[in-house]
Amino acid sequence: MPSSLDSRFSNVYEPIFLFIKKESKYNYYLSLDRLRLPANNFANNKNPEDIIGFEVEDSLFKSSKIKGQVFKILKDPENNIFVEVIWENGKRTVEILQNFDKESQTPVELICPGCGKVIKYDSDINNHNKCKGFPIPVLPPKPDVNMSTELKTSVLFPYNDYRLIRTGKHNYKGKFQFSPDNRGASPGARKSLFGEYLVRQRRYKIFQPIIAEYLGFWRRRKGATIKEIDNLLGYKDTAGHWFRKDFGSWGRGGSIPLPGDWFKLKDILKFDDIYDRWVTETHLVLQTVKPHPKGKNPGDVWNIKLQPSSEAHFATFPEELVRRCIEAGCPDGGVVLDPFAGSGTVGKVACDLKRDAILIELVPEYLTIIKKRCPNVKEIIYVVE
Ligand SMILES: C[S@@+](CC[C@H](N)C(=O)[O-])C[C@H]1O[C@@H](n2cnc3c(N)ncnc32)[C@H](O)[C@@H]1O
Fold first, then answer.
1. Is 375 inside a domain boundary?
2. 245-to-2, 24, 113 alpha-carbon distances in Å
3. Which residue in 122, 229, 288, 378 has its CB near the most CB atoms, within 10 A?
4. Is the residue at 328 inside a domain?
């Protein structure tokens, strides 16, 4: 609002409060992706051939890390890229190389065999508590290395000169040079200290609570105790975490078995194959400084111009403000509720974004404006005290 204050600074912002029903990272919907902004200052133009000789780390191998080196690059007719890795224990494996521009883990949709609906977000899981059967992941066709041809092979004999492996590593002289503890927080510092390398990671985003439920079902069916499973696998207190559904942020104990443990567990519990690929398929992800593939997080300060209304209502929202809130907080097919509708800006934007909306307004006269701005009003209910 225009301000004539001269004894203090004028207030130029309003807070937007985001409320959720339950304090859990996994129980609410927030789509940052729809609001991401173009990233600046980053170039991302690496070709698969460029990673020949790169160091590979496998942190999914037992509980310790094992290292290897990229020896050969292959490509199939579908443009899937494979990498042959020679590991320090002498083994050679062929790994899928993740497209550098993509998110490190592929999001997965599951189909609920009970109701046939798709499970796409963590928040969808709870809607299927009463459905029968475990949801089935829909995964892309498995790339077949036998169809591929060679793109490039290393001219270096593996491991003959370890210093050649990590590239881009150089003396760090940035702002964290005197505070080593903080370097990990700076992508630039990380890159100059550790160079670029590849990490073997799971290929798909996994909903841990579904896996925990599934493993619990098969464990009860087999009548095996957690202690027995730990004993059989040579662990002390690991198996218990696979059956807990609290997964994610700090202090939560649920975990997903490593690919190797998954198959050992399968020998013990004799479960079926439905989750084998989802849980165990891996790929190599380049650790480098790169922008988020969908753009940068828009941050929590939004600059939005006021938008005066031509109607007889004075405190209308700018449409852009409403758009951002709906895009971020309401999934496709969701319903938006505005308990203080005023001139109906929220209804108009919800309609533009193809969401249904319920508007509540105290002053009956505003209905004329609302109807003008939201031409597809389906139902009007008058509440008289
Ligand atoms: C600031 S305006 C909202 C403007 C709206 N965001 C827009 O873009 O047009 C607040 C509205 O809430 C309505 N209102 C206030 N108390 C209410 C109540 N208890 N129930 C329903 N509406 C109410 C007022 O009549 C007013 O139109």
1. yes
2. 52, 12, 21
3. 229
4. yes
pTM, rounded to two decimals: 0.65
**4-11 mean pLDDT:** 90
Domain presence at residue 81 = no
pLDDT tens digits along 317-329 = 999 999 999 999 9
- Domain enclosing residue 358, as ranges: 302-385
- Which is the closest atom of ligand 1 to the Cα of 369? 9
360 within ligand 1 shell (Cβ under 6 A): yes
Query: Domain with 369 in it: what CATH number?
Result: 3.40.50.150
> Is the residue at 382 inside a domain?
yes
Q: Is 252 helix (H, G, I), strand (E, B) or coil?
A: coil
Give 365: exposed, middle or buried? Use CB within 10 Å, 0-12, 13-18, 19+: exposed
Average pLDDT, the chain: 87
* Alpha carbon nearest to ligand 1 atom 8, residue: 316
- Residue 172: predicted pLDDT: 64
* Cβ(373) – ligand 1 distance below 6 Å: no
What are the C-alpha distances in Å from 89 to residues 29, 196, 202?
44, 22, 21
Q: How far apart are CA 279 and CA 257, in angstroms?
A: 8
